[in-house]
Structure formats: structure tokens, C-alpha cells
Write a structure and sequence with these properties.
Number of helices: 3
Radius of gyration: 15 Å
Distance between the termini: 18 Å
Structural class: alpha+beta
Oligomer: single chain
Helix content: 25-40%
Length: 64
Amino acid sequence: MPKFKPHTGTGKRVKVTGKGKIVREKAGKRHLLEGKSSHVTRRMTGTVVVDKADTPRVKKLLGR
């Protein structure tokens, strides 16, 4: 059997916390920010926990 290789792109996008939760950055705050209101850009700051439905797939990609 070949060795399992974790998905490196997923590893760069998500982080596993000490308790095992998977957190990610919010999307939409990279470019075209002049057209977005400050209310919207503030809402996109910070990290959020990955949705419960997506957690098994992300864990599989990370090799956990």
C-alpha cells in the first residue's frame, strides 16, 4: 500500500485547534474591497469553525 499523503492545500487553509476543532478564515476579503462596505469587510474578519457537515471531509484531507 502506498503511504497516505495529506492534501497540502487544505493544510494551508485550515488549522486544527487544541481541542480538535477545525477553523478557517472567512472568504471574500482578498480583493475588490473598495466596493464593499466597511460593515461587510468587518464581518469577514477572524476565523470560524468549519461547518459540521464539512468536518469529516476536511479531516480526511488532513489525514486525521
